[in-house]
Amino acid sequence: MVFLRHKIVKGNSYTYLVENKWNSEKKTPMQKTIKYLGKTSSIILSDIPYQYRNSASVITFLGSTKNTRLVDRERHIRKLKKDFFEFLIHGEIDRVQAIYRNFTRDSTLSDFYQNILRPVLYMIGDMWDLKKLDVGEEHIASNTVVRLLELIKKETRSKPSIGKNVLICTPYSENHVIPCLMLETFLSIRGYKVINLAPSVPVKSILNQIETKKPDLVLMSITLSDHLESGKRLITKIKKLKIPILIGGQATIDMKKIPGVACIESDSLQKIAQLVKQVIK
Questions:
Q1: Where would you tag: which of 87, 117, 189, 194 has the fewest CB atoms within 10 A of its CB?
Q2: Is the pLDDT of residue 68 over 70?
């Protein structure tokens, strides 16, 4: 059985999706957090994992008087994504920034990534694959996103350093830099020192940086399946340096697990941050 737990912090309500199980050994109920949903007032249907949307507590919450604006919010999110897409492919950075700033007044950076930026990036990628978007438009959109992420990193206040270093890299010839920039920004504001070598740095240079900087974790992003084998070869070399490795990206979803290497199984940045913390420990 799942239910929604609300926690009040400094006058704001935050919600967690929690599963209630029976511990047959201890003969007591056991609770496990499935997902942190963010600010209670900002929750939308897509925040709830699909398999839990029909549970009684979720249906009750979404249909409650407090959430009569849910349908309007869903409609608003769809409109924002449509506008964001148009502004990206036309390189209208000022309007892109305006959507980001307005959205994050009442929502977190993680919510913006999850509900606006990532879905639109997937849309752009799908349209490019189907030849419904030309190369020029795709490049303009990508460059505009990079400029936005640089602005976010500059404007967002980081937490005090926690004394942990994370090195981000991709296999050689993997040129998808945006996922790495998103991770760099998200981890930086949580107090990590991030060394971002993406994209496409030669293997020798990556190994030299690891030996020199001695990071607490290497985080590797692989977007295209064509680069899985080169990624595995790089992992083999990094493992010899006795550094914890965490891999993720679209290409790794169906990849067989590699012994001694943790794999990111969720696209939630909150979950990734939790996994980074666990692996470094």
A1: 189
A2: no
CB-based contact 77:115 (threshold 8 Å): yes
pLDDT of amino acid 63? 61
**Helix H or strand E segment including 179:** helix 178-188
Q: What is the pLDDT of residue 236?
A: 94
**Does the N-terminal peptide bond of residue 199 adopt cis geometry, omega within 30 degrees of 0?**
yes
Give the C-alpha separation, 203 to 172, whole Å.
7
Encoded tokens for 203: 């293997």
Q: What angle do CA 249, 251, 254 make, to 5 degrees?
A: 110
Q: In the predicted model, what is the mean pLDDT of the chain?
A: 86
- What is the DSSP secondary-structure string of 199-240? S---HHHHHHHHHHH--SEEEEE--SGGGHHHHHHHHHHHHT
165-280 is a CATH 3.40.50.280 domain: yes
Superfamily of structural domain 70-155: Methionine synthase domain (1.10.1240.10)
Element (H, E) at 241: none
Q: What is the pTM (predicted TM-score) of this model?
A: 0.73
pLDDT per residue as tens digits for the range 126-180: 898 898 999 999 999 999 999 999 999 888 877 788 999 999 999 998 888 898 9
Residue among 43, 68, 41 at smallest CA distance from 53: 43
> In this structure, how many other beta carbons lie within 10 angstroms of the beta carbon of residue 150?
12
